[in-house]
Amino acid sequence: MGKNNLASQSTYTSTRELEDLGIHVKTRTTIEDINTTTKQLTYTEKDDETPLTDHFDKLVLATGSYPVIPPIRGVINDNVYFVKNKQDAFALRKFMDKKKVVAVMGGGMIGVELARIFQKKGMEVYIVQAGNRILNKYVDEEVGEEIRSLLEKEGIKVHTSSLVLDIKDISSSKLSKKGQTIAVYTEHKQINVDGVVVAIGFRPNSTLLMDQVLIGDRGAIEVDEYMRTSADDIFAVGDCATTTMKQVEHKIYLPHALRCFP
Ligand SMILES: Cc1cc2nc3c(=O)[nH]c(=O)nc-3n(C[C@H](O)[C@H](O)[C@H](O)COP(=O)(O)OP(=O)(O)OC[C@H]3O[C@@H](n4cnc5c(N)ncnc54)[C@H](O)[C@@H]3O)c2cc1C
Predict the structure, then answer these.
(1) Is 28 left (phi over 0), alpha (psi -120 to 50) or beta?
(2) Which residue has the CA at smallest separation from atom 39 of ligand 1?
(3) What whole-number distance in Å separates Cα of residue 214 and Cα of residue 240?
(4) 259 CA distance to ligand 1 middle (Å)
(5) CB of 205 closer than 6 A to ligand 1?
(6) Which terminus of the chain is more solvent-facing, meaning fewer CB atoms within 10 Å of its CB: N or C?
(7) Helix count and strand count (H, E) for the chain
(8) 42 Cβ contact list (under 8 Å, min separation 6)
């Protein structure tokens, strides 16, 4: 909403604070390979592609997640936005300040939260949700419907059971009568907008251990309640790993920062 300073909120801590605690921090360093048997890891630093190696006694993997990119022609476009990191937030902020009509693809927590922000900023907002109701992973149907009618009262147009089939750049076409540059096609409708925000979920960044440990729900690294993977001395935490919930029989993929579920 622009009430707070985005940049100052975008990090929980700083390199300096961590180093003051005695933690060595290597930024612009990419782990390229992990061998769980020999306990070796290969990494590259900064812009140099020369592989370097190191050894570990215990390893905690926290490689996070990446946003799901739908297999739609036209999804790679300057006016199609993803929401994961600080750069994405700044790009969206710029978009919000300049443009008027937006389609949010995905009616989950992030999609609904962003839709409300756009609406409060005076934009015309569409939520396009493949499932038959919004927030279906978070709340029961009754509550979901109540939230939907609140959003609609605020002026947000909610389209459920609507799969986005295509996104088309119409900037130089006659289709764009009101000056909108993007057409979003669903099974039922064409919506002309200035930009599309894709918020249809995340996938775990688990490739480094993919063939070496047990992989669970949605490709997340399966861990027990002590965050141990199936390999000795290898742990995984955060968005790359599964979560154990007492009421749920199987370990599930739940990419949230606050997992304080009973
Ligand atoms: C818009 C948005 C809103 C959200 N709102 C909420 C909310 O309200 N409540 C909530 O609980 N959660 C929320 N979340 C989810 C929450 O942000 C994530 O669950 C959390 O940030 C995941 O942290 P992480 O450290 O596991 O992964 P990430 O934040 O994905 O960090 C992983 C890091 O690992 C690095 N990395 C990856 N591969 C390598 C490699 N090979 N070598 C070296 N480094 C590597 C990446 O560069 C990255 O910095 C939200 C997320 C988004 C995008």
Answers:
(1) left
(2) 63
(3) 13
(4) 13
(5) yes
(6) C
(7) 5, 15
(8) 31, 32, 33, 34, 51, 52, 53
- Pocket flag, ligand 1, residue 9 (CB < 6 Å): no
Give start and end residues of each alpha helix (H) in the chain: 6-9, 15-20, 86-98, 109-120, 141-154
pTM: 0.91
Taking the C-alpha atoms of 209, 210, 216 and 217 in order, what is their torsion angle to the nearest 10 degrees? 110
Tell me the Ramachandran region of residue 98: left when phi exceeds 0, alpha when psi lies from -120 to 50, beta otherwise: alpha
Centroid of ligand 1 to alpha carbon of 238 (angstroms):
7
Sign of dihedral through CA atoms 80, 83, 85, 88? positive
- Check whether 235 has a pLDDT greater than 60: yes
| CA dihedral sign, ordered 81, 83, 89, 90 | negative
Q: 9: CA distance to ligand 1 center in Å?
A: 14
What does the block give as tokens for 42?
A: 């290969």
Q: Where are the alpha helices (DSSP H) in 155-228?
A: none
* Residues 158 and 127 sit within 8 Å (Cβ to Cβ): yes
Tokens of 224: 């027990």
Place of tokens 């061998």: 35
Q: Do the Cβ atoms of 129 and 160 come closer than 8 Å?
A: yes
Helix (H, G, I), strand (E, B) or coil at 197: strand
Lowest mean pLDDT among 64-78, 173-187, 233-247: 173-187
